[in-house]
Amino acid sequence: MRTYDLSPLYRNTVGFDRLFSLLDGGSGVEAAPTYPPYNIERTGENAYRITVAVAGFTEADLDIEVKENTLTLRGEKKAEQNGESAQVLYRGIAARSFERRFQLADHVEVKGAVLANGLLHVDLVRNIPEAKKPRHIAINTAEGPKAIEAESAPSEAAKAA
User: Fold this and answer.
1) In angstroms, rounded to a whole number, what is the distance separating the alpha carbons of residues 24 and 112?
2) How far is CA 61 from each of CA 50, 74, 148, rounded to the nearest angstrom?
3) Measured between alpha carbons, how far is 22 from 114 in angstroms, rounded to an integer?
4) Whether this model's pTM surpasses 0.70
5) CB contact at 8 A, 62 and 89
6) Which has the higher per-residue pLDDT, 16 or 79?
């Protein structure tokens, strides 16, 4: 696997240190996990949904945790409570334990999770505080305030009248 040196880009950018750190961390030698498969969808302007295929898992088998901008999904099949166990001739439905982590951007919160038809849907919403939202700044010229002062001051013709 190739490793890219991103250090020349650090000196040419401002404020992208976290992005490059994430890229550096993602280029490790270990292979990225592929189980369980998932989709990330944009459902609105500030709304997202992560859908994870968790066939065979129940709500009791799944755990969702959010800690320090990291969403962690865990699944572990509980042992069958019945004394009877069926003899499986072919196992095609994976029921192995998993742990999948997602890095969340700042101000992204987990709104809720739903398990339906073997799919776990985790809804996310980005709530940007008012102080962080972009705002419009008016540009004043040097003549602008003088024109306002001249209009508000009574004119010489008005004083003479």
Assistant:
1) 31
2) 18, 8, 70
3) 29
4) no
5) no
6) 79
Angle value at C-alpha 71, between 70 and 72, nearest 5 degrees: 110
Do residue 141 and residue 69 come from a single domain?
Answer: yes
- For residue 33 the two structure tokens come to 């996990």
CB 56 within 8 A of CB 79: no
Cβ atoms 108, 124 nearer than 8 A: yes
Give the pair of three-digit tokens for residue 53. Answer: 């295929």
- Yes or no: say if 122 and 71 are a contact pair by the CB < 8 Å rule: yes
Same domain, yes or no, for 5 and 58?
Answer: no
pLDDT in tens, 76-97: 987 665 556 678 888 887 778 9
The CATH number assigned to the domain holding 109 equals: 2.60.40.790
> Tokens 């019945």 label which residue?
82
Tokens 């305030």 sit at which residue? 145
Q: With H, G, I as helix, E, B as strand and everything else as coil, classify residue 159.
A: helix
